[in-house]
Structure formats: C-alpha cells, structure tokens
Kinesin-like protein (Latimeria chalumnae), 785 residues
Amino acid sequence: VSCSDSSVECTEQQLLKVYLRVRPFSKTELANNESQGCVVIENSESVLLQAPKDSCTMKNSEKGIGQSVHRFTFSHIFGPETTQREFFEGTMKCIVNDYLDGQNGLIFTYGVTNAGKTFTIQVKGTPKDGGILPRALDVIFGHIMGRQYQKMDLKPYLSSDVLKLDCLQAKQEELMKATVFATVKEQKQKRKKKKKKTCMNQNSLCKVNVQYAISLNRERGVDPKESIKFSVWVSFFEIYNEYVYDLLDALPTLKNQKRPGLRICEDQTGNSYVKDLKWINVCNAEEACKILKTGNKNRSLASTKMNRQSSRSHSIFSIRLLRIGDEQEILKVSELSLCDLAGSERCNKSQTFGDRLKEAGNINNSLLILGKCIAALRQSQNKMKQNYVPFRESKLTRLFQAFFCGRGKACMIVNINQCASTYDETLHVMKFSAVAKQVVQTIQVRTFDFLAPRQLGKDGNGKAIEKSKVSSSLSIDTPLSEEEEEEEEEEEEEVDVTILSYKELLCMIGNLKERLTEQRQNRLILEMEIRKEMGEAMFLQLMETEETWSKRLADLKETYEDKLESRFEMYKDAIKRHAYLCAMEEMENYVPLEEFEAEQRKVEERDKKIAELEAILKNLQIADTSSSLGSSALKVLESSEMFTSNAETGITLELKNRHAEKDQIITSFKSKNKELKKNLWEAGEIYQENIKEIERLKQEIVQQKQEFESLQKKQTSRVFELEATVAELQELLCASRKHSSVSEEVNQPKPKKGLFANLKSSVAGTPLKSIRQSVTNTPTTSRNR
Ligand SMILES: Nc1ncnc2c1ncn2[C@@H]1O[C@H](COP(=O)(O)OP(=O)(O)OP(=O)(O)O)[C@@H](O)[C@H]1O
C-alpha cells in the first residue's frame, strides 16, 4: 500500500483475484461418456488439464503443435463438491466487507456456456442454494439492519454521485418501484401455488441469512447503534448484441415495438455509467431478489444445443450503497456489480445459426476485447510503461474500465465443466484466465474525505437534474426507431455534457485533446499488436481448418475409392458379360490363332500348287497330266474345306475353355478373327479365280486337241499329195528314161525345154533318198495308207 497523503488518498496494488469453480457432471453427461478425466485438481491452487483423445488440442499435440497437458494456477480452486455457501465465503466475503466499508467491487463470471456461471451468481436450482448475489444481499442487509434510511429522496446519479429529490420526485420513485413490483405480482398471481412455496423458501432463506449476517457484523465489529444511515439502490441491465437494455423495463407488448436501448456516458471524472438506467430503492434482500427475478424474466435467454436456458447477454446487477450522515449529507457511495457474462462458446460447437450466430459473434467479440484489455493491462505492467488498453471498443469493457483503473476491486470467477466435448473451449477459457491472473490492480483506497460524492439537486445543479429527468422520461417512454438509434449512436458524446458547467467543459476538452494525442501515439503500437494477435489467431484457425479439411479430404478419398472400386467391378462384370455374349454370337466364325496359322500355311501350299498347275497348264502338250492335275487341285480344295469345318468344332470347345480366364485376349482374337475372315475371303476369291482358270485351261486343252487333229489331217492330206506327186514324178521319170534310151539309140541328145525340163532337172538335183526320208517322217498310218 502506498499513500501520498494518508488522510486523502492511498493506493493499493494487488494481483487480480481469479477463482476457478469446477462444476459437477450432470447425469446426462455421465451417460454420454463426458467424464474422461480432463480436469484434475492437484491442490487448492493448481489444476491440470489433460486433452481427451478427440479434442483439437490432442490432435495438434500429436502433430507437434502445443501440448496435451496444461497446468494452471488460480487464487483458489473450488472443486465440484463445493457448496454455494463455501464458495461465497471463499470468494466474496472479503469483497463484500470492503464494499460495506465504502470500496467498489466488481465480480464477473467467465466460462463456456453451461459451465455454471448463472448458477454461481444467481439462484438457479433451489432457492435455498442461492448463489453469491443473494448471499451478498443478505450480508449487506444484515450489515445495515436497523440503520436504513427510510426515505427515497436521495438517489444514485451518474457514476458515483447522489441526487437530492424533491417530494414529487421521491413519490415518482416510489411509483416506479411499485410498477416494477407489480409485474412480479402479476406473475405471482398466475402461479399462486408455486409462489407460496417459493416465498416460504425465501423467507426461511432470509431468516437463515440474516442470522448469518448478524454473525458477520459481529465479526467485523460493527456497532449497531452507529448513527450513519444507509440507503440501498439496485439496477439490473444487460448488454445484448452491443446494445444496453434496462432489464427493469417491461418488455414491449407489441410485436414490432423495439426495446429502448440505453447509452453509456462518462461523467466529469471520466467514469462510465449507463444513462437513464432505473435505480430502485430496496429495503431488504427479498425486495432485491424480486428485482433480480423481474430482470431475469426480461433477460435474453435462449435454448442452445449445449444449455436449455443459455444466457445470450452479459447481465450486470449493481447494488449502490449510500452512506448518509446525520444531516442527510452523503458520506460515501459504494457500488457492487455482479456480471454474469454470456457463454464463450464457439459457433460450430453450439450449432448456432441466424440470431444465435449473431449473438455468438457479439458475445465473442466483447469477450475478445475484454481479453485484449486484460492482456494490455498485463503488458503495461511488464514493460513498466503505459500501454493502450482498448476499453472503449466494447460496451462491456467501457463499463469495466473504472474497476481496472483503480475505482475498485475486481475479481474474476472462472467456471468450467469437465466435459470432454467442450475441452478445447475450456482450455481457451483457462488460458484467458491465466493472463487475467497476472494483472495487477491499482486500487485507490478511499478514505472518508477522498472523492466525496457530489450531492446534486437541492443544493447542486438543479437545471442539470431537470434536463436529465426530461431526457430520462423521453428515453423510457418513446422507443426509438432503428435509424434514430443509429443517428444517436453517431452523435453520441461520451460525456453527458448536460451536467457540465462551462469551465468543466473547457477542462474536459483539454483532457480529450490530451487523450487524443496519447491515443494517436498508441495507435501504431496497437496496430502492431493487433496484427500479431490476428496472425496468431489466424494461424490457429488455419491449423484447425486444415485439419478439418484434411480429415474431410481423407474421408472423401476413401468413399470415392470405394465407389470407384465397386464401379470398376461393375464395369468388369459388364465387359465380361458383353464379351461372352459377343463370343457366343461369333462362335461360328471364330478360329483360334494356331488354327488360323495352320490354315494360312495350307493356303500358301495351295497357292504353290496353283502356281504349279498353271505351269503345267502352260504345257499344252501334256493334256492328260494337266487334267489329272486339275482334278487333284480340286481335291485339295475340297479337303481344305473339310479341314476348316473340322477346325471350327475344335474352336468352339477351345473358346469355352479359355473364355473364363482370358478376357483380355478376346479383343485381340476379335481383330485376328477379322483378319482371318478377310484372309479366308481372299482365299475364297483366289479359289474362285483358280476354278475359273482351270475351266479356261480345260477349254484351251479341248481347243488345242481339235487343232492338233486338224493339223494331223492336213499333214496326212499333204503326204498323200506328195506321194501322188512322187508317183507322177516316178512315172514321168520312167517315161523319160524310156524316151532317153530310144533317142540315144537314134539321135543325138536333144536340149531341155519347158516345165517338164525344169522338173526333171530339179528331180535330178534332189536325191530320191531325201524325198523318201520326208515321207517316212509322216505317220505310219498315212504311210500305210
Ligand atoms: N456447482 C454446481 N452444482 C450443481 N449443478 C450445477 C453447478 N453449476 C451449474 N450447475 C447446473 O449446470 C447447468 C448449467 O448452469 P448455468 O445455466 O449456470 O450455466 P451458464 O454457464 O450460466 O450457461 P450460459 O452461459 O449458457 O448461460 C444448470 O442446470 C445448473 O443447475
């Protein structure tokens, strides 16, 4: 603790208290095998988180990214068996005590949906087992018991001031309170039976808690006869989709009517407050609980996959305690705020769509900014220099800003469940809280004189109050249209200038200028940090996406492979069937390769024989041989045909045997078959040609025979002619010889004359022997003749 002036200001530095509460398993969770030993509480300050098999963390650690086991330390850890009372005493006692001494306090619960945040703060379940809020109320009212300020003319105003109300305004306050309670009554009448039971429970709870409060007061050494009076005021609002709504405003009855949104402003001290928020004066814990109930009724709840009654907004219940002196002077105003943050679940896990998706986006965004603020606060401590803290980026952090900047004590309650299915989210929450735990808070210890609240109204700025009241009534009664709301948002000034004097305005401008320069300087650093953070977040997201896609890819590959395989089998069968049918159809024409080759050889042989035949036929002189050759060629052809038909029967058998094993050969055989057919056709052609040739040769033989015979006849007739000529010549010769012998005897030989004389000389020139020889060359038959 460091004090600059002990009577005026003291500052205290302490680490932000972060408590962990582990929720027990529900029956359904146990049945769903959610209990996989993910959360192991080592001792009251340390917990071990072990990644279950199917979590992203485990998969990443298997890839070498990150670890599967994480250890976290907290200010205190409360196990699943911890009762509500034990939890309250372990966490809230100190804060509530400080609050009663005039210190501000903020408690916020953080955790995934269904982790027990609302259970921890409020009265979910049985009323006997109330959370920290009803218990804190009991302690507060126990503390001020018998010392309550009975009137309603001193009302909290702005962030920490008090407004002095006149009679009429005080009456209006009473009326407003009655209106709020009337809605509870209406509800009560509807469920009379249930109400009786609840009231009894609440009464019994109150009795128990009042006794408990008295004992606490005794512990704290409170004097019940102290002259100071107390006035307690409560408010309850929610931040839903970055809009602030008063939960004590009745919900619009008309369907298209919009809920009036409230604005966050800053007063002259720079502290944020919700403008026009309803503050209700409560006399006891029961009344405060009624307010809580009314607000809960108007709260944005929805049934998500993970929680049937999930809070979709951040709700803040605030209790302002006015310490009033003997002369109605305000000595102190302290505020205790309990914030039930919406679940920090991820969209895919909770299967959010439409409105739920938008809500989740806004919830995650404001929680992200809260995380950024906490990280920035921690960094500025480490670097020992002022760091830009983005408080103003979300409504939630704007309201929390004062608590982190010394206006009071903040404490964080981290709620987790032990379910394996939400492990990754739980780990994220734990990492967030690990950063938060390192934040050092600088708390201004408020002494009696320090920052005494301003009392406005009767002796203060009456004009400002009037204005405020007018705007308040306007804001509450007239719902703004969407455009108007947007316009207002744009025009919105952070400070409610209506309450400031000219000097204050100048001062504020100066402050703003300073802040602007500071912010400009910090902007570059912030940008770098954001880039880094974004990079890290994107890397993680990319890793997750890659993993999901690679998994999907593998699955797809597998299914396609299966499909392809089955389709391939199908096609194979179809081809087999088709080939079989084709083969059956073409069975008669089918000739195996060996047979085809044998046939080819035969065709070649036949060609040879035909060639020989042709050679023989050319020799026209040997007619008999040629005719016999022709017949033998015919026989050869006939035998080849017979051979082919025999081969065909063999082929059919062969095909049947081979068909099953050699599907692939079918195609090649088909082509060969075609070739064979072609060859056979060619062979047939040749065969036909040969037959024609043989016919032609036969005709030629007959023709030549005829010519030969006619030639023979001509020769014979020629021989006869020659023989006749010879006979004539012989006669002539004889006659000439006789004549020559007579003339020799009588006269001198006479000279040769005319044809006869020439013939005689030629016969005399040609020896008789050669003539006879030519005659002997003629056939014997003709010679005989
Ligand atoms: N410590 C506990 N002991 C027994 N039951 C618990 C405890 N904490 C929570 N539960 C039960 O768990 C369920 C979820 O709790 P709760 O609604 O408080 O979660 P939440 O974190 O507020 O969820 P959301 O963020 O969605 O509003 C409730 O049924 C509640 O009764």
The longest strand covers residues 229-240. The mean pLDDT is 76. The radius of gyration is 63 Å.
